[in-house]
Amino acid sequence: MGVRFLKANGVLGVQEFLQLFRVPSFDHKIPVSGMVLSEFDDIVSVSQCSKSCFNRPGCVSIFFNSATKQCIAAGDVADHHMVSAPGFQHYTTQGPEVNKWQKFGQSHYLLIKEGANLYQAQKRCKELGSKLVELETLEESSFVTDIAIRENIDIMIGVTDAFQENEWMFLSSLEAVPFTQFSSVNPDNWNNQDCVCISSYFNNQWDDFDCLYEISHVCERSVGC
């Protein structure tokens, strides 16, 4: 069950929510100093503590001690990043999928089956301290393609030609991709398609599609982040 906290986003009349999930297994612990983003004293509630994560890049965890009124904001943490600290409770923005990251090479990967368009997928990955997956090697491509095959779904990847037709680049860096894996009939740019997915219809090869179309996606983050 998540706890939702209101945050203003600076746009008149628009409100967003930060949803935090309790992680009891990390209670009475805090992250080691190298994992801490910021610390605050005289914090009287979880809601007030949660504000330390608002608009803070990389922040996905808070640790709150109601007795001492201390609040700690941190990135993603694992058990080996923790030290004993009685009285602290742990909350995360990562939700029930927190333990479903898969490691391959120097990255962790999270499949999000819920359909999202490009902009929603990028926002979701950013909230998890990650980015929409970018396939930089053939080995990495095989790993993500295997996920698509196993789950029998299409998977959006972080590639676009929105800036120059048929010049495919990574979304995060706008650098040219080192390879493409389009099917023999793609890309076709039907109705100006600028996004890319691993498509079950095209035998798990790449297909260009409308960036507003909602499909599953994979988030990627570096090991240790």
Explain this structure to me?
By secondary structure, the chain is mainly beta. The protein is 13% helix and 36% strand. It has helices at residues 46-50, 118-127, 138-151; strands at residues 2-8, 15-22, 29-31, 36-40, 61-65, 70-74, 82-84, 89-92, 102-104, 107-116, 131-132, 155-160, 169-170, 195-199, 205-209, 215-222. Strands 9, 10, 11, 12, 13, 14, 15 and 16 form an eight-stranded mixed sheet that branches. The two termini are 25 Å apart.
What layout of secondary structure does this protein have?
Blueprint: E1 2-8, E2 15-22, E3 29-31, E4 36-40, H1 46-50, E5 61-65, E6 70-74, E7 82-84, E8 89-92, E9 102-104, E10 107-116, H2 118-127, E11 131-132, H3 138-151, E12 155-160, E13 169-170, E14 195-199, E15 205-209, E16 215-222
Parallel strand pairs: 12-16
Antiparallel strand pairs: 1-2, 2-8, 3-7, 4-6, 5-6, 5-8, 9-10, 10-16, 11-16, 12-13, 12-14, 14-15
Features:
elongated; 225 residues; 6-stranded antiparallel sheet; mainly beta; 3 helices; disordered N terminus; 8-stranded mixed sheet
Structure in a nutshell:
By secondary structure, the chain is mainly β.
